[in-house]
UniProtKB/TrEMBL annotation:
Database matches in Pfam families: Lactamase_B_2
Protein name: Phosphoribosyl 1,2-cyclic phosphodiesterase
Residue span(s) of domain Metallo-beta-lactamase: 11-184
Transmembrane segments: none
PANTHER family linked to this entry: EXODEOXYRIBONUCLEASE WALJ (PTHR47619:SF1), METALLO-HYDROLASE YYCJ-RELATED (PTHR47619)
InterPro entries in the record: Metallo-B-lactamas, RibonucZ/Hydroxyglut_hydro, WalJ/YycJ-like
Domain of life per record: Bacteria
Amino acid sequence: MRFAVLGSGSRGNSTLVHSHNTYILIDCGFPLRETIRRLARLGVEPSQLDAILVTHEHSDHVHGVELLSRRYGIPVYLSEGTRRGLRKPIDAACILSAGDTLELGALEVKSVAVPHDANDPTQFVFFNGKRRLGVLTDLGEATLGVLECYRDLDALVIEANHDRRMLDAGPYPYFLKARVGGSHGHLNNQQAAALVARLECDALQHLVLAHLSEKNNRPHLARQTFVDTLGCDADWLQVADQHEGLEWQLIA
Ligand SMILES: [Zn+2]
Ligand SMILES: [Zn+2]
C-alpha cells in the first residue's frame, strides 16, 4: 500500500491511497483542472480512480468532487448527512455511514465518526490485508471511537491545524477562534500530538501532519510539538503542504 497527498490546508484537501489495482481518492477540494494536474504529478490519471470518499461537506473537501465524479464516472462514498449538505447533488452517490466497513477492490475502508462542525462528518481507516493507514483531519477532539479505530496503524495522516497561541493572538474574529479551537473545530498541534501518543502505534512507519493553517500555524511549530510529545526524530515527521502536497509514501 502507498499513499500521497495532492494538497492539504484550508484552501483544498485531497489524499490518494493505492493498493494493487485500486486507487481511492479521499476528498477533492480543488477545481477539476488543478486536480488533474496534481494527480499527474503523482503519475495517476483520473480514469484510474475507483472511488472518491468524502469526509464532510466543507468546500475545502468537496469543491471538485461533483465534476470529477461526473466527468469520469467515479462513484462517491459519503454519509447521508454529508450528501444532504452538498450544494450540488451527486448522481453516483453511495451512502457509507459512520461505523460501516466497505470492500473497495484491494482495500477495506472503515468509516469513523468525528466531532466537527458539519453534518455527520467521518474519517477513514484503510486496510489491505497487511497494513493499516489512517487519515484523520477536521476533528475538534479525540473521542473514544477515534482512539478505538485508529489503533495498530502502520501510517497516519493527522491534522495539526493550529498553534494554540497563534490562534489566540491571530487575526480571526472571536467567534471564529472559538469555532476553530472548540470541540467541533480542529485539532491544535498539542492535541494532535497527544492523540498520536495515546494511540500507541508501535509500528508506525509514516506520520504526516496535515491541514496546517497558513494563518495560525507554522510547520516548524507543529514538528517541534510532535518531537517534544512523542520523542521522535524531527526528520522522520512529514508535513503535507497546501501547494506541493506530499509525494508517494510506501508502507512496506
Ligand atoms: Zn477542512
Ligand atoms: Zn471541515
